[in-house]
Amino acid sequence: MTTEAPKPQPEQDKETRLFIETLEKTGQIVDVDEHQDTSQLPAHVTHVRYPDGTIKRIRFTGPGRQ
């Protein structure tokens, strides 16, 4: 028996699209290939997009822990 992942709701799709657009506008997301060393990317880059469309977070920004 296989179970399928639940399909995202339209509101989630819209939210995701807006979030990615914001990352693109601010330069926080860049396109990379599978073999690229993401540790060498500039510090302001927080997300990467692979050729298959997968997006991964590579850094966190914001105030550090206290």
TrEMBL record:
It comes from the Bacteria. This is Uncharacterized protein. It comes from Bradyrhizobium erythrophlei. The lineage of its organism: Bacteria, Pseudomonadati, Pseudomonadota, Alphaproteobacteria, Hyphomicrobiales.
